[in-house]
Amino acid sequence: MISVEDAQTRLLALAAPLSSETVPLRAAANRWLAAPVAARRDQPPFDASAMDGYAVAGDPAAGDSFQVVGEAGAGHGFAGSVGPGQAVRIFTGAPVPAGTSRVVIQEDVDRQGDRITLRVAADSGRNIRPQGADFAAGARLAPRWLRPADLALLAAMNVAQVPVARRPVVAFIATGDELVMPGEDPGPDQIIASNSFALEAMARAAGAETRLLPIARDEDAALRAVFALADGADVIVTIGGASVGDHDLVARTAGDLGLVPAFHKVAMRPGKPLLAGRLGASVLLGLPGNPVSAIITGQLFLLPLLRALQGDPAPLPAPQAAILTEPLPANGPRAHYMRARLAGDRITPFAQQDSALLTILSEASALLIRPASDGQRQPGETVPYLPF
Ligand SMILES: Nc1nc2c(c(=O)[nH]1)N[C@H]1C(S)=C(S)[C@@H](COP(=O)(O)OP(=O)(O)OC[C@H]3O[C@@H](n4cnc5c(N)ncnc54)[C@H](O)[C@@H]3O)O[C@H]1N2
Ligand code: MOO
Fold first, then answer.
1. Which ligand is in closest contact with the Cα of 193?
2. Residue 37 · residue 157 · CB < 8 Å
3. Cis peptide bond N-terminal to 214, omega within 30
4. Is the pLDDT of residue 123 over 90?
5. Ligand 1 mean position to 252 CA, how many Å?
6. Ligand 2 pocket list (CB less than 6 A)
């Protein structure tokens, strides 16, 4: 059995980056910016007022008085120039008129007709946002996951079309005679297929386009037929049938179909039966069937794979540190990803860690990482975890 880190490295080695495409700005949310884009203008494009008040020159003192000679608003500046003893009524976002060098806020001014008098000396701030203070024309936004703030930044840069990585297509195949879809009528020996729904949501949030294929019965022919439906997918994710039982067919059937294996079985808990390899033009990721195992291996393997396919050079989740609240016995030879609750900087693993318990997983906010063969841990010690 190989370590989690080895398995992740081998899987990511299968991730040849996808091509890019250009999409309208609004369609770029949550996608990977595939190439640097340059600002097409300065922002602000002119020295702009940061406050509502009066634009004047110099460093006026309390009692100084000015004649108001015009107005500058956002979207319509003051065309003339402003001389000594003159002021322009100005509003936030307006271009600062030629000849002025600061904005006195209106709260500090008494106005009578077209004259203003300063109640206090102008303060040290000029209340002006200089041209290009946010960014200058030509400034670049480097490849990254585009968050909402990045969309606003691209818009301000006047970038309407955005180069992003093509969405990876992920096909999900749940396997097992016991499975029916939610809303169907399960037979007495059947359960509801649940894992695909978590995994599909996870993949979509990571930018993938998803296909939920029909459940494959536990026979070679049925599994082959569903594999055929996955044709063209960048990633095929099977769920279940990865272990050693007589009905665990994924490795065998995929092998007969030409799977070039990268690994099968990883020293982790949950998730030991995980397998991966290249199947034709697709990457095959065979997840274990237990719900917690499937979702955690999805988190640790499927998500990084999807990020890497889209070009993210650092696709792996970064462990954080928290303070343990309870003693933990020494860990065995498999890295253990314990379902845990995080409160501030303190982490408490759930007492029950069975890999079939979706209620516990749903309550969990962290996966406490016990490295393989880690010794006993005491309350107060710092331990690694992954946010969940
Ligand atoms: N003799 C051994 N038995 C098992 C081993 C082992 O090493 N030796 N490994 C165990 C571990 S660890 C895991 S994890 C499971 C995973 O096995 P499979 O990947 O073959 O999964 P299945 O047997 O098909 O299913 C396991 C469990 O999960 C339920 N399941 C399956 N698919 C779904 C789904 N889409 N939604 C909800 N639940 C699902 C299934 O009904 C089973 O209860 O093997 C252990 N056995
Ligand atoms: O290692 Mo399995 O994934 O615990 O249930």
1. 1
2. yes
3. no
4. no
5. 16
6. 269-272, 288, 290, 293, 355
Statement: residue 244 has pLDDT above 90:
no
> How many other CB atoms are found less than 10 A from the CB of residue 151?
17
- Best of 355, 367, 370 for a ligand 2 pocket test (most atoms within 8 Å of beta carbon): 355
Can you give the pLDDT at residue 288?
Answer: 96
The ranges of the chain annotated as CATH 2.170.190.11 are 48-129
What homologous superfamily does CATH list for 48-129? Molybdopterin biosynthesis moea protein, domain 3. (2.170.190.11)
User: Which architecture does CATH list for 4-17+166-309?
Assistant: 3-Layer(aba) Sandwich (3.40)
The model's confidence at residue 95, banded by pLDDT at 50, 70 and 90, is very high
Instruction: Give the Cβ contact number of residue 162 at 10 Å.
Output: 25
Nearest to 302 by CA among 183, 190, 181, 210: 210
179: confidence class by pLDDT, cuts 50, 70, 90: very high
Q: Which ligand is nearest to the CA of 292?
A: 2
pLDDT at 245 over 90: no
Architecture label for domain 320-387: Beta Barrel (2.40)
- Biggest distance spanned by C-alpha atoms of the chain: 93
Ligand 1 nearest atom to the CA of residue 218, by list position: 24
Class of domain 20-43+134-165: alpha beta
Q: Which of 170, 159, 307 is nearest to 230 (CA)?
A: 170
Q: Is the CB of 248 under 6 A from ligand 1?
A: yes
With a cut of 90, say whether residue 328 has pLDDT above it: yes
CA 370/CA 349 separation, integer angstroms: 11
What pLDDT, on a 0 to 100 scale, did the predictor assign at position 247? Answer: 78
CATH 3.40.980.10 region(s) of the chain? Answer: 4-17+166-309
Determine the pLDDT at residue 265: 96
Comparing 5-14, 96-105, 236-245, the range with the smallest average pLDDT is 236-245
238 lines ligand 1 (CB under 6 A): no
What is the average pLDDT across 300-327? 98
User: Is the minimum distance from the CB of 178 to ligand 1 under 6 angstroms?
Assistant: yes
Please state the ipTM of this predicted complex: 0.97
Domain ranges in the chain with CATH number 3.90.105.10? 20-43+134-165
